[in-house]
Amino acid sequence: MVLLQTMTSEEYKKNHTSFKIIYGFHPSPFGNCLLAVTNTDQAVAYLAFVDGNNEEALMDLKNSWPLSELVDDTANETQKIMRKICSPCAFVDDFLTLLLMGTEFQIKVWESLLRIPKASTMTYEQVALSINKPKAVRAVGNAVMKNKIAYLIPCHRVVGKSGSNKYKWGTKRKESIMTYECESP
Question: Which residues are catalytic?
Answer without folding.
Answer: 155
